[in-house]
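Residues determine shape. We examine one folded chain.
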Amino acid sequence: MTSEIRSTQETVELPVALPESPSLSISGVLCVCLVVLLWGVRLWIQQRKKQLTSAGKDGKQPLLVAFFHPYCNAGGGGERVLWCAIRTLQKKYRNVTCVVYTGDRGATGEEIVEGAFRRFNIKLTHPVKFVFLEKRYLVEASLYPHFTLLGQSLGSVFLGWEALLKCVPDIYIDSMGYAFTLPLFKYLGGCRVGCYVHYPTISTDMLSVVRNQDTRFNNAAFITNSPLFSKFKLAYYYFFAFMYGLVGSCSDVIMVNSSWTLNHILSLWRAGACTSIVYPPCDVQTFLDIPLEEEKSTRGYSIVSISQFRPEKDHPLQIRAFAKLLKEKRLGQQPPLKLILIGGCRNQQDEERVNNLKRLCEELGVSNDVTFRINIPFEELKRHLAEATIGLHTMWNEHFGIGVVECMAAGTVILAHSSGGPKLDIVVPYEGHTTGFLAENEDSYAETMAYILSLSPEKRLEIRENARRSVHRFSDQHFEETFLLSVEPLFK
């Protein structure tokens, strides 16, 4: 029997080199080129800084601390924070030169400083260097009828680039809420960066408004009426919230103005280790100097509102609630009422907004009962508050509410919106006693105003005294202490 032997050959598979993906190679090269380019720009900016910076009187280079505040000549609470912060640094550090990036080219530096003293009673101890920016229009909301948040944020990057080229600071502080400038100054400018957040550019509340298809000043009716548009805007908001968190987390020091703002910033930026509450400085002592006496005059009552004429302040709600109060004759035979709207106008859009409010007064038949006082001097502001019975505030989710504090310190009975800073931090019981009132809509505002005016002068005096005792925690001195403590890491 013939046996057949079959031999088998083992085949060994050798690794085959796969061709590299062209797109992967190109991406790698582009990334390297981008890094090299950014590093080169950073070196160029540092060299430019040496050329632009001059030595001080003692021959030493001063420490440049720059504040990014394109609307520094406006008369709002954010500007009060700016000037108090500058005054605080000037008092603490002798070798510091404060710089303000501003787009207010219609005024000189001297006029801006004088305006700060006239409006806020803040006098600086040393000169301030102003860097006037030409491209402020890039952060105007009117330039972006759609995708406004994204447009303004990208515009702020270009405006920040202009600022960086004109002056390279050692310490950069965004004091107006342009978080997208933070990585620009940190990574290209080589600066230590901080920020004071008055109001998050986007918040979880804004996401919920779109998700629930609620109509607000920043969520038009045609969007709320369309599920498709609502979903698209929600996706846009989520994308923007992600980017906002990314750039915000670049900050070395984060200061927020209230518990409400703190909760949102912690949720979005996730930088709790360097985040702290620094209540804004309110000139409470100046208002506390107003004598607090029991009401004697019966010639009439005035209701005063203090806030910039911006859409989120919801002045139409104030006017409608006031008109409802008069129309329903809730006051019976009591003395006449006057509504005084006091605020600052930053630009033509704000001025047009005031004109629209005046037209609303005409439509509701209350033109003779409503007075507008725009960009008034500080002494006139004090006079109006001293004569007022009620201080009125209507902004939904107000980040803090300096105007609310000032009304309470001046001795008015405050009626604020039941949300945000006023609800969480300001109009809260003090030692178990009432300090003011909260409302949410037209009806509740009208009803509460009628209730306040129906109280006896003795009862109103008791509430006013409680409110005054509660506002000391919002003083200039307390701001200075907490501000210096918060920014200390930037000076090390």
The first helix runs from residue 22 to 52. The chain has 18 helices and 13 strands. Residues 281 and 478 are 8 Å apart (CA to CA).
